[in-house]
Amino acid sequence: MATRYTPPGSFKSPREFRQRLHEINLEFGCDDHIEADGPLAESLTVAGRQVSNRFAIQPMEGWDGQADGAPTDHTRRRWRRFGESGAGLIWGGEAIAVQHDGRANPNQLFINPASDNVRHMADLRDTLVAAHQAKFGVSSCPLIGLQLTHSGRFSRPNGERLEPKIVYHHPLYNQKYRLPDDYPVLRDSELEQIRDAFVQAARVAQAAGFDFVDLKCCHAYLLHELLSAYTRPGPYGGDLANRTRFLRELISGVQAECPGLVIGVRLGITDLPPYVADKNGVGQPLDYHAHLPWQLGFGMSADDPQRPDWTEPCQLLSWLQAWGVALINLSVGTPYGSAHVQRPAAYPPSDGYWPPVDPLVSVWRQMQAVRHVKSLFPNMVLVGSGYSYLQDYLPHVAQHEVRCGHVDLVGLGRMVLSYPELPADVLAGRPLQRKRICRTFSDCTTGPRNHLISGCFPLDEYYKQMPIAAQVKEKRRATMERFLTSPDAVE
Ligand SMILES: Cc1cc2nc3c(=O)[nH]c(=O)nc-3n(C[C@H](O)[C@H](O)[C@H](O)COP(=O)(O)O)c2cc1C
Ligand code: SF4
Q: How far is CA 48 from the centre of its chain?
């Protein structure tokens, strides 16, 4: 039977919540009071620009672009709300595929050679800035990046079917997604073409007025998979220098073609072996013991891939600093194999599983990685991820982490879908609007997993009123029922 963990919002005070953290041996702190002019309101200099506070909006895709890669009104609304949040930094907006075959779904925005990409991207940026300035004044403007991606193994450009572009064979992902062992691996020349497409996309971002590009290197997509291509022969596989060659070449390419454009990297710093639901619906890793020493992921211990090993990620981070990358956003896990750490949640999405540990443990896994990196690289500008599960205590924990110098900017993912004004409320000293706090129902993931758009169907009226909201709700109900009627679930 799956264990139900008490969500943070059920604790009546920061003191009670700290008590729970203590009981489960988690070391992160939670301040008693939020100070409107406190650590979260401090400005920060990033690549010579002032960022006015310590909130960052994480990239959040909506599966709602047009077939030709252009944004829709749903996309514009999301970006408008990002602007209204008052956050000082917008990390990427959402993942934009650098070419059609790298789209994660047929509605992902992409750089389409047949389209006016600069106009589309500038439209999103301008929408965000206008919404921000309407609320916070024309002299205020967040630092805004565009996230560039190729979905690699998780490309699904044309419909519901996966059309993977892999850089090496991963036996456990092959097993999970039924990929034959002779499935073609991308050739070096194909990788070089993709690298050039990234550079071209960076040109578009610069022409559209973005301050920086994020070269997305997390969540099992192409650039992330390259970091663990131990078994790949040739220049892009093997030792760490080879596994990071693509990224190095890409950074040089962007620097050469887009002088002055700031570069950021969202890096998956550690992972877990792919998890699946057991007969009770609880997440368990696929059996990985036949694959030890582990060479099928980045930042994972070779003896025990359930444990992080930050040696290589820290080596890469020191190189990224030397190569001129100005800001880093750390993430852990993937939405496909280890969603319980990547987006800790009280309720699983329809393709997911009940969390095998208290989601707070997963929040800590993310936070601990950031703390470790910050202690080694005090001058690196770092954004942390995975805070939304903290619910009512997100600002208290965020303030604690920033005050202690463990992180520079606190990234908000799902929370910004349900309650975009949370940063503005915190910074103005207003009480939190409790009804709008993300309760991690996972419907924003369940929608896309069923080839529907994403959005906060339970809490955002805009999505709640849509006819497809009933479909998403039904998927959630069916997921719960499936788990509750699984054979050993009844005690
Ligand atoms: C609906 C949805 C869309 C997402 N889209 C992206 C994306 O485009 N790029 C990205 O790097 N991460 C994406 N993520 C991951 C988030 O940026 C974030 O890392 C994750 O939700 C954990 O943070 P949170 O606890 O604040 O939600 C997405 C997550 C969700 C739920
Ligand atoms: S659907 Fe809404 S409440 Fe549920 S996880 Fe997403 S943002 Fe949070």
A: 25
pLDDT at 486: 57
Q: Where are the domains of the chain?
A: 8-436
- The pLDDT assigned to 481 comes to 82
The pLDDT value given to residue 63: 98
Atom of ligand 2 nearest to the CA of 443: 1
Predicted confidence at residue 229, as pLDDT, reads 98
d(CA 56, CA 285): 32
* pLDDT score of 485: 63
Q: Give, for 190, the enclosing helix (H) or strand (E).
A: helix 188-207
Rounded Cα distance between 386 and 89, Å, is: 16
Query: Cα(388)–Cα(103) distance, rounded to whole angstroms?
Result: 26
The full DSSP string for 82-148 is HHHT--SEE--SSEEESSGGG-SSTTS-B--TTS-HHHHHHHHHHHHHHHHHHHH-TT---EEEEEE
Q: Which ligand is nearest to the CA of 389?
A: 1
Compute the distance from residue 460 Cα to the ligand 2 centre, in Å. 9
Which of 55, 58, 329 should be mutated for ligand 1, with most atoms under 8 A from CB? 58
Nearest alpha-carbon partner for 93 in 63, 58, 141: 58
pLDDT in tens, 419-452: 999 999 999 999 999 999 999 999 999 999 999 9
Below-70 pLDDT ranges, the chain: 484-491
Query: Omega of the bond prior to 293 within 30 degrees of 0, cis?
Result: yes
Distance of alpha carbon 243 from alpha carbon 227, whole angstroms: 5
The predicted-structure confidence for 10-41, as pLDDT tens digits, reads as follows: 999 999 999 999 999 998 899 999 999 999 99
For residue 319 the two structure tokens come to 């190189």
DSSP one-letter code for 466: S
Please state the pTM of the whole predicted model: 0.97
For ligand 2, mutation pick of 57, 456, 464 (most atoms within 8 Å of CB):
456
Q: Can you give the pLDDT at residue 489?
A: 40
Q: Is 3.20.20.70 the CATH number for 8-436?
A: yes
> Which atom of ligand 1 is least distant from the CA of 438?
27
If we measure between CA atoms, which residue out of 472, 178, 177 comes closest to residue 349? 472
Residues with CB under 6 A from ligand 2: 414, 417-418, 438-444, 456-459
Instruction: Report which protein residue has its CA nearest ligand 1's atom 18.
Output: 413
